[in-house]
Write a structure and sequence with these properties.
349 residues, Rossmann fold, 7-stranded parallel beta sheet, two-stranded parallel sheet, 10 helices
Length: 349
């Protein structure tokens, strides 16, 4: 019996790389496409295409012969990249172009199912002003008022996929990710997210020293470990529910609390100092009522366990003094399949 052939867009990124491994273990034939190979391990994809999905020709070739598409490719990063406003135009243009290309050429190729990775950043900023009681249920997305252009693009693309479902009968699945973290993710260079940034700072700090966090640290978030993220998206893909649905943890913590947790894991004695910086909304937490109702499942892992695994991995990276660059692991790659020239943007981590 022929194996299902699937395409993972953004396969060189954090979530995409983990997803490729999961799909291979489940027996799928996997084509990955990205501007770069995974930075910290060799790809497990059967075929890996180095290419820019903003290019219509590359997008058309990528979906050719595939049955399912997992669309995780996007221009994105942590608060230091998204919330300064300096990258708004390029973020919106790059990500929207990728989705327009992949979806249209996928439709023309007869793709059976699309998974689209949206974001909790689509939720209205005015519902996330109370750090102790943010409102992030799926229906609260409208009236729309995301806190960033990144969030607006994600919301537009949700509507794009749903419009294709209504007008063309395209089968889509949409998940709103809430702060995914874990080993093999970006941990320095300016696009890393809070868990990785804090782990790096703690790992680099001498005992008795200090680390810096942006703001007073009372802003709250929930963070989901990568393994549960992949489990959730696979369950959604195999269900009959299109979404959108939250895939995130309900274990909310303040940023200062997260820093204190990592310091405790490290065993060091460190001070926490507050400095000015981009903060995003005051509070955000996944609301998992819908995913429990429709999939009979919700993330249940402990934040402390995931942070321990993540800190240990990042500490090892710091100790090995490996620079953060897209070429870090290219000498270890064993590429297969076609390649194409690329213009840099990142994958959806």
């Amino acid at each position: 019996m022929a194996r299902t052939r699937v395409l993972v867009c953004g396969a060189g990124g954090f979530i995409g790389g983990h997803l490729v491994g999961r799909l291979k273990r489940e027996g799928f034939w996997v084509r990955g496409v990205d501007l770069k190979y995974p930075e910290f391990s060799s790809t497990e994809a059967d075929e890996f295409v180095i290419g820019d999905l903003r290019d219509q020709k590359i997008a058309a070739e990528a979906v050719d012969g595939m049955q399912d598409v997992y669309q995780l490719a996007a221009d994105m990063g942590g608060a230091g990249y998204i919330f300064t406003g300096e990258h708004d135009a390029v973020v919106m243009h790059n990500s929207a172009t990728i989705n327009l290309n992949v979806l249209e050429y996928g439709r023309q190729s007869g793709i059976a199912r699309f998974f689209y990775s949206s974001s909790a950043c689509i939720y209205p900023a005015h519902n996330q002003e109370d750090p102790g009681n943010p409102i992030c249920s799926e229906e609260s997305a409208y009236p729309a008022a995301p806190d960033s252009e990144y969030g607006w693009e994600k919301l537009f693309s949700e509507r794009l996929y749903l419009a294709y479902m209504r007008n063309y009968g395209t089968r889509v699945r949409i998940a709103r990710f809430h702060n995914i973290f874990g080993p093999q993710g970006t941990w320095d260079g300016g696009r890393e997210k809070a868990p990785a940034a804090i782990c790096r700072k703690v790992a680099q700090a001498p005992t008795g020293g200090s680390i810096e966090i942006w703001g007073d640290g009372t802003q709250t978030r929930s963070f989901l470990y990568i393994d549960e993220c992949v489990e959730g998206l696979r369950r959604l893909m195999e269900s009959d529910f299109p979404g959108p649905v939250n895939i995130g943890s309900e274990e909310m913590i303040s940023i200062r609390g997260l820093a204190e947790l990592v310091i405790s894991i490290s065993g060091k004695q460190l001070r926490i100092e507050s400095i000015p910086g981009p903060l995003g909304v005051r509070g955000r937490n996944s609301d998992n009522r819908l995913i429990r109702s429709r999939l009979g499942w919700a993330p249940s892992g402990r934040l402390a366990d995931g942070m321990k695994a993540t800190y240990d991995w990042i500490r090892d990276q710091v100790l090995a003094a490996k620079p953060a660059s897209a070429s870090r692991r290219l000498d270890q790659q064993k590429p297969v399949g076609r390649t194409a020239a690329a213009i840099p943007h990142s994958s959806d981590d």
